[in-house]
Amino acid sequence: MSDNPNYPIGTAAVSWLDSSNQIHIRVYSTDGYTLTERCWDGGGWVAGGFNAPGGAVSATSWQASDGVHIRVYATNDDATIEWCFDPGSDWTQGQYTTS
């Protein structure tokens, strides 16, 4: 149906606990063209600030002494692009390149 929204065809998720044991979840979904982020920080699901082109998605995260680091890998136009979120910064394109 033309009036239906674009439904996700691929999903990746990351999670971590903060210092007060609050769980945080990030879900990255693609409709085949665009990746979007949904966030859970204990108060319900909200739209996140990440949005990028991509037909496939994977993600990883880790917690370091400075906070949580997130990497999202989006496949688009026969290449994989790395997107990075690090403490104190906004989303930036990473250095990963497809061989």
Q: How many strand units?
A: 8
Strand order of the largest sheet: 1-2-3-4
Distance between the termini: 39 Å
Which ranges are low-confidence, i.e. pLDDT below 50, for 5 or more consecutive residues? none
Question: What's the helix and strand layout?
Answer:
Elements: E1 10-17, E2 23-30, E3 34-40, E4 45-53, E5 56-64, E6 67-76, E7 79-85, E8 92-93
Antiparallel strand pairs: 1-2, 2-3, 3-4, 5-6, 6-7, 7-8
Please give a structural write-up.
The chain is an all-beta fold. It has a single domain (10-84), classed as Lipocalin (Beta Barrel), CATH 2.40.128.190. It is built from no helices and 8 strands. It has strands at 10-17, 23-30, 34-40, 45-53, 56-64, 67-76, 79-85, 92-93. The strands form 2 sheets. It has a 4-stranded antiparallel sheet, with no helix packed on it. The chain is globular, with a radius of gyration of 14 Å.
Index terms:
99 residues; mainly beta; Lipocalin; four-stranded antiparallel β-sheet; 0% helix; globular
What is shown here, in short?
The protein is mainly beta.
